[in-house]
Design a protein that fits this description.
This protein is an alpha/beta fold. Helix content is 45%, strand content 15%.
């Protein structure tokens, strides 16, 4: 994604892409890397680690959190660079409602795009008409162009 972003922008910009638990790495790293990145893209964004752990527990999966959820929340809520969140309509772990709530907290720098499907199925959206990943790349392209 970084190479695509650099080709699309007149000035070089650096973005990071995370999916599901990868968004936790981005969010926790953000305070240390915020001066080095220009945007974030996340699919299945983990907005609250304790909420996600509880939802997984209900499915019989155990997640051991490495820190208090409030520490994670501080990092997520501190994001000031443009953020694109792609969220699935049928995702019961990292929900559309969670993404909207984070968008409300972060304000106009956060764009939430919902797609029909399950957790991390963004690349399959409109596969029959557009092909694998085309819808996804269109969303990234539109977001990156909005940064110009």
């Amino acid at each position: 994604m970084l190479a695509i972003s650099q080709l699309l922008l007149k000035e070089s910009k650096i973005g990071v892409l995370g999916m599901s638990m990868g968004t936790t790495i981005i969010s926790r790293a953000y305070p240390d890397i915020k001066s080095k990145i220009d945007f974030i893209i996340g699919e299945g964004y983990v907005t609250n680690t304790s909420t996600v752990a509880e939802r997984l527990k209900e499915l019989g999966k155990h997640v051991l959190l490495p820190e208090k959820s409030t520490d994670y929340q501080k990092s997520v809520n501190s994001i000031q660079v443009p953020l694109l969140i792609l969220t699935a309509s049928e995702d019961t772990i990292t929900t559309y409602g969670d993404a909207l709530a984070l968008g409300n907290t972060l304000g106009e720098n956060c764009t939430v795009v919902q797609f029909e499907g399950e957790h991390l199925a963004g690349f399959q959206v409109d596969y029959d008409n557009k092909g694998f990943g085309v819808w996804y790349l269109e969303q990234v392209d539109q977001f990156v162009k909005s940064l110009e």
